[in-house]
Amino acid sequence: MKALIIVDVQNDFLPGGALAVPEGDRVIPVINKISKRFPVVVATQDWHPATHMSFAVNQPGDKRPFEEGIVGGVRQVLWPVHCVQGSDGAALAAALDQEPVHAIIRKGTDPDIDSYSAFFDMQGKNSTGLDGYLRSRNVDEIYVSGLAADVCVYFTIMDGLQLGYSCYLIEDASRAVEVEKGDYEKARQRMLQAGAKIIDSERL
Ligand SMILES: [Zn+2]
């Protein structure tokens, strides 16, 4: 059984948002075109309390967005305030067709640890429930779309492979944030090496 995972197509990640992914809005028409074809569709939302430690402003010292820091014992990039629970920025993009979406998984809700992956937090400890949901529907192939290709989409695919799913990145339904130039190419190579397949929506 195939599932489409729509990662974090939220206002804050679109052009004009608090943590805009370049061309992030371009994924929406592609996702809208393909989502009805999948028997299982799950959307995710980054869903942080305002006190979330991944926000540079909540870190000790004079940390700035896009610098590195430690969040829950894990070294990662620190971000501007984004996707605060219940805010407009955290809402799914209005242009995203939600009718085909069966379930919404929210992640990053623990203030002390981030969750790039739609499956687990950054320590790999706490499950979001996505794996159980997919297994209960006999899903064995996941097609991943959304934002950002080199962060949350990437981590979702790497965890999906670990969990034994066949994983496809729908490349034209995703865009990278590239905090460092070249991040996407590196992520792309790692996904391929780990066994993911990269396709365009035309080939579905
Ligand atoms: Zn976040």
Could you describe the 3D structure shown?
It is globular, with a radius of gyration of 16 Å. It has a six-stranded parallel beta sheet with strand order 5-2-1-6-7-8. The chain contains four helices and eight strands. 19% of the residues lie in helices and 23% in strands. It has one domain (2-203): Isochorismatase-like (Rossmann fold, 3-Layer(aba) Sandwich). Helix 3 packs parallel to helix 4 (183-194). The longest helix is centred in the last third of the chain and has 12 residues, at 183-194. The model has no long low-confidence stretch (mean pLDDT 97). With 204 residues, it is an alpha/beta fold. Bound molecules: zinc ion. Zinc ion is lined by residues 46, 48, 54, 79, 82-83, 108.
Small ligands present: zinc ion
Indicate the overall shape.
globular
Q: How many distinct helices?
A: 4
Any idea of the CATH topology?
A: Rossmann fold
Q: What top-tier CATH class fits best?
A: Alpha Beta
Helical percentage = 10-25%
Taken as a percent bin, the fraction of beta residues is 15-25%
Biggest sheet, in brief?
6 strands, parallel
Number of domains: 1
Placed side by side, the strands forming the largest sheet appear as 5-2-1-6-7-8
How are the secondary structure elements laid out?
Elements: E1 2-7, H1 27-34, E2 40-46, E3 68-71, E4 74-77, E5 103-107, H2 130-136, E6 141-147, H3 152-162, E7 166-175, H4 183-194, E8 197-199
Parallel strand pairs: 1-2, 1-6, 2-5, 6-7, 7-8
Antiparallel strand pairs: 3-4
The chain binds zinc ion.
